[in-house]
Amino acid sequence: MEIINLSEYLPQLISISVIAVLMAISPGADFIMITRNSICFSRRAGVFSSLGVSAALWVHIAYSIAGLAVIISKSIVLFSVLKYAGAAYLIYIGWQTFRSSNDIELSQAKGSMSSLSAFKIGFVTNVLNPKAPIFFLSIFTQIVTPDTPIVIQIIYGAIISATHLIWFTIVAVFFTQPKLLQMFNDSKNTIEKFVGGALIAFGIKVATHTSS
Length: 212
Prior knowledge:
This protein is mainly α and 212 residues long.
């Protein structure tokens, strides 16, 4: 059994860690969705959505390690399917959130999101992100070399996944602090419209974005 010298991959490890942090804290669909689930439903919903995002990242990591990221990013058909499916999902959730402030039936359903539903929303939001294949392609071609052992690549993936889980759990906990929740409840309709509008706008941006 070959012994892996971890110190040899320390520069890669540091680079991946820094990129993982920057990737996690950058505002995007994941951040908006988890904020939405935390504020509109519960801290538990936010945390389970975070788990969904963290799990979805392993899908991207798996096909990147397998070398499929380049195929997805270069295939017009595959990339377009991913792009429009992701955009449609964001617009759908955004519209549901936007109209919920004036919809009695939807308002009565608040607080009823199950842990599984929250997990699914986080998972689908991230797995349908069309920017992910390009992002992971850049990592697995510019930083990770062909000689990097699979075990090391899996460690890199674990760092990316764990970083997102930690960050978005912090986001869920932060936005569900009692004082903040009281403020949110006082302006519930306005905030729901803003979050819903943001998701719709982000979905439209994804749908109309042309990759270079």
